[in-house]
Write a structure and sequence with these properties.
Elements (H helix, E strand, L loop, with lengths): L2 E2 L1 E6 L13 E3 L2 E3 L1 E5 L7 H21 L5 E2 L1 E6 L22 E3 L20 E3 L1 E10 L2 E6 L1 E2 L11 E4 L9 H4 L21 H6 L4 H6 L2 H4 L14 E6 L2 H20 L5 E7 L3 E9 L3 H8 L7 E2 L3 H14 L8 E6 L10 H7 L2 E6 L8 H6 L16 E10 L6 E5 L5 E3 L4 E2 L6 E5 L10 E5 L9 E8 L7 E7 L3 E3 L4 E9 L2 E4 L2 E7 L5 E5 L15 E6 L6 E11 L5 E3 L11 E4 L2 E4 L12 E3 L3 E13 L21 E5 L2 E7 L12 E7 L2 H6 L5 E2 L13 E6 L11 E9 L12 E4 L10 E2 L7 E3 L12
Parallel strand pairs: 4-6, 5-7, 5-8, 7-14, 18-19, 28-39
Antiparallel strand pairs: 1-17, 2-15, 2-18, 3-4, 9-48, 10-11, 10-13, 12-47, 15-16, 20-24, 20-26, 21-22, 21-25, 23-24, 27-29, 29-30, 29-33, 30-35, 31-32, 31-34, 34-39, 35-38, 36-37, 40-41, 41-44, 42-43, 42-45, 45-46
Helix pairs in contact: 6-7
Protein name: VWFA domain-containing protein
Pfam families: CLCA, VWA
GO molecular function: intracellularly calcium-gated chloride channel activity
Length: about 775
């Protein structure tokens, strides 16, 4: 028996065109629903599965003790790729998918190492003994070293000094610095955290310790320590593999649910029919007024695939449901999803024509009935305007489709090599739906395709061009754009953040234009340029995640998000230096002897960014709901200050301090601030605890630039004696035209350093009793090598 997946969604009102999520839940101190996905490019290896299980089991115990007996991993699902052989112990996934996995196991991308790393969308010291050495000469795996020298006045070590920790330690903190040391089992706390360390932790979390941030999270606010000294149980594991057909069932339901919840407007009449050999009306037309109405329909989506496919019976049942609700089939729209073959679909062509309904078809898999395209064509499907350049990662199965409303235009299409396709090359639909298409044979040429449409009719008419294409090769990942909002509900005036990730494989794509189009229910649009500059709403610069605050509310209701990412003029490039990766430890000191680890592959500066071809991608980011906003037209007064400056840098140049940062806006990261407040002190705590009373820098000549611009400012500290080793701490605030003041920036330091001649630098002995370090990364417990 052939299993088939079929569902019809239908509605009678015109349709207008979330959140990045995880399935992990914390229940009674145990994390459930963790999904670890194996990349399809990884060769089949049973040992890998066992290694993952061992790693997670060990990590669960480690996490339990690190969180002071608060949490552990209760169950984990391992998603096996379909490129591996199917086995009876592999279960079918329900909602788990590779795209939403919490951990991905993959081969090292290119040749630049296998360091684990995390993607960071969100906003927000200890004593370790060791030796500082300079590598004088290395050959093979052997290096000659000598102790570092330091300046006796400043206490600073010489350039290219490498810290090598003692392998035997008593220090317990911090996991976020050097987890590889066996003694390190705890997070830094308020008592041990170094608030002066120039790291992302202090910048984004205002100097708070890792443990303070963890304890203020929702999970830990509602979780008490367990009485047991060890986790009550080892994690349980489920092995999941998407069978192709079952995966299509999930994808079909996923697409249908997304369409229902995030696309269909409130006020629409919506119903649903499921069918195999017979059809069943699951929901007659229902007025969508609230979330309950959506859920009543999604609750009836099919949970298993049965045998047979009768598309005609499904369509006729859809017509019956529409008529039963006292609505006309003429003008109604039907979304038909099916993966089954049906040799009798042509028997209902005439009924479809007579109905006047507009049918949009989605074929799931290669076995779907070939007549679906004809069915959709004969009912006048709508097209979306737009063209895209064809880059080297796509070009397979490429179609150019032209539609018109009155008379066929004159068409001229030219590929990047100059080959021309004329009107006669486009195959016109025989059912007179005013469309013509051209399928490019083989692989479409890489580069920019150009087209020209000439309207020969006396009257104006609507002309559209649609281009569709697929990935060129299953082994070459295309450039992909994904988008989501920071939250799915917003209450005025609180801002939300738009995120878009653009990547090829696991590498971020830089140097491109990324624009968000946010639209209200009544069609009002706001266009917002997204930035990957490490300022404002953006957490990390050059990580391929483009971000921006959204505050231009236009009344209450649902807002939809689309993101357009494109590259022009050969400006796009891949960043081969992965961000947020695990700390590399050069080696250890054991019994007074330095034992080095294998060197980590380094990316040379001239190879760090690889150019890629021009491209264009358009993606949906779902929708979000706004409440409490003033009614349109939305000209409400500013109630938000400029965004916090998060990329402030400082350095001495002779006796002057040079500052640089990215300009915030009048409202968060939009517009232009009115002025800046810069204060300095020789005490870090003065700025952190009493910023308003620290020494004020004269900024009368500093005129703020437009948000996103680079600010540079130079000043000479007054009333201070400056000599070798002099250290200043600096922080900045921005003020807008409404006199609203931003948060104080992170605190930076500038040190006056005059290198001494080589012979005047005192060499340290080979024994170093203690070196204070406080470097904290971003949370990541897992390490997969």
């Amino acid at each position: 028996m052939v299993l088939s997946l079929n569902v019809i969604l239908f509605l009678t009102l015109h349709l207008l065109p979330g959140m990045k999520s995880s399935m992990v839940n914390l229940i009674n101190n145990g994390y459930e629903g963790i999904v670890i996905a194996i990349n399809p490019s990884v060769p089949e290896d049973e040992k890998l599965i066992e290694n993952i299980k061992e790693m997670v089991t060990e990590a669960s115990t480690y996490l339990f003790h690190a969180t002071k007996r608060r949490v552990y991993f209760r169950n984990v699902r391992i998603l096996i790729p379909m490129t591996w052989k199917s086995k009876s112990e592999y279960f079918i996934p329900k909602q788990e998918s590779y795209d939403q996995a919490d951990v991905i196991v993959a081969n090292p991308y290119l040749i630049y190492g296998d360091d684990p790393y995390t993607l960071q969308y969100g906003r927000c010291s200890t004593h370790i003994t060791g030796t500082n050495v300079v590598f004088k000469k290395c050959q093979g795996g052997s290096c000659v070293t000598r102790p570092c020298r330091r300046d006796s006045q400043t206490g600073l070590y010489e350039a290219k000094c490498t810290f090598i920790p003692e392998k035997s330690q008593t220090a317990k903190e911090s996991i976020m610095f050097m987890q590889s040391l066996h003694s390190v089992t705890e997070f830094c706390t308020e008592e041990t955290h170094n608030t002066e360390a120039p790291n992302l932790q202090n910048k984004m979390c205002n100097g708070k310790s890792t443990w303070d941030v963890i304890m203020n999270s929702v999970d830990f606010q509602n979780t008490s320590p367990m009485t047991e000294m060890n986790p009550p149980t080892h994690p349980t594991f489920s092995l999941l593999m998407s069978k192709q057909r079952e995966d299509r069932l999930f994808r079909m339901n996923q697409a249908a649910e997304l369409y229902l919840i995030q696309v269909i407007e409130k006020g629409s009449l919506v119903g649903m029919v499921t069918f195999d050999n017979v059809a069943e009306i699951q929901n007659h037309l229902t007025r969508i007024t609230d979330d309950n109405a959506y859920q009543k329909i999604t609750a009836n989506l099919p949970q298993e695939a049965s045998g047979g496919t009768s598309i005609c019976k499904g369509l006729k049942a859809g017509f019956q449901a529409i008529i039963h609700s006292n609505q006309s089939t003429s003008g109604s729209e039907i979304i038909l999803l099916t993966d089954g073959e049906d040799n009798e679909i042509n028997l209902c062509f005439e009924d479809v024509k007579q109905s006047g309904a507009i049918i949009h078809t989605i074929a799931l898999g290669p076995s779907a009935a070939k007549e679906l395209e004809t069915l959709s064509n004969m009912t006048g499907r709508k097209r979306v305007n737009g063209t895209v350049p064809i880059d080297s990662t796509i070009g397979n199965d490429t179609f150019f489709v032209v539609t018109w409303t009155i008379q066929k235009p004159e068409i001229l299409l030219q590929d990047p090599k100059g080959k021309k396709y004329k009107t006669s090359d486009f195959k016109e639909d025989k059912l007179n739906i005013r469309s013509a298409r051209l399928r490019i044979p083989g692989i479409a040429e890489t580069g920019t395709w150009t087209y020209s449409l000439l309207n020969n009719h006396a009257s104006s008419q609507m002309l559209t061009v649609t281009v569709t294409t697929r990935a060129r090769s299953p082994t070459t990942p295309p450039v992909i754009a994904t988008a989501h909002m920071s939250q799915n509900t917003a209450h005025y005036p609180s801002p939300v953040i738009v995120y878009a990730q653009v990547s090829q494989g696991f590498l971020p794509v830089l140097g491109i234009n990324v624009t968000a189009i946010i639209e209200t229910e009544d069609g009002h649009q706001v266009t917002l340029e997204l930035w990957d500059n490490g300022a404002g709403a953006d957490t990390v610069k050059n990580d391929g995640i483009y971000s921006r605050y959204f505050t231009d509310y236009y009344g209450n209701g649902r807002y939809s998000l689309k993101v357009h990412a494109w590259a022009r003029n050969n400006m796009a490039r891949l960043n081969l230096r992965q961000q947020n990766k695990a700390l590399y430890v050069a080696g250890y000191v054991e019994n007074g002897k330095i034992i080095l680890n294998p060197p980590r592959p380094e990316v040379k500066d001239d190879l760090a960014k690889v150019k890629i071809e021009d491209f264009s991608r358009l993606t949906s980011g779902g929708s979000f709901t706004v409440s409490g906003a003033p009614p349109p037209p939305g000209n409400h007064p500013s109630v938000l200050p400029p965004s916090k400056i998060t990329d402030l840098e400082a350095k001495f140049k002779e006796d002057y301090i040079q500052l640089s940062w990215t300009a915030p806006g009048n409202v968060l990261d939009k517009g232009k601030a009115n002025s800046y407040v810069i204060r300095i002190s020789k005490s870090f705590m003065d700025l952190q605890e009493d910023f308003d009373n620290a020494t004020l820098v004269n900024t009368s000549n500093l005129i703020p630039k437009e948000a996103g611009s680079k600010e540079n400012f130079e000043f000479k500290p007054e009333h201070f004696r400056i000599e070798n080793g002099t250290k200043f701490y600096i922080a900045v605030q921005a003020i807008n035209e409404a006199n609203l003041i931003s948060e104080v920036s992170h605190i930076v330091q500038a040190i006056k350093f005059i290198p001494l001649p080589e012979d005047s630098v005192h060499a340290l002995g080979t024994k170093i009793s203690e070196i204070t370090l406080a470097i904290f990364g971003l949370p990541m417990i897992f390490s997969i090598f």
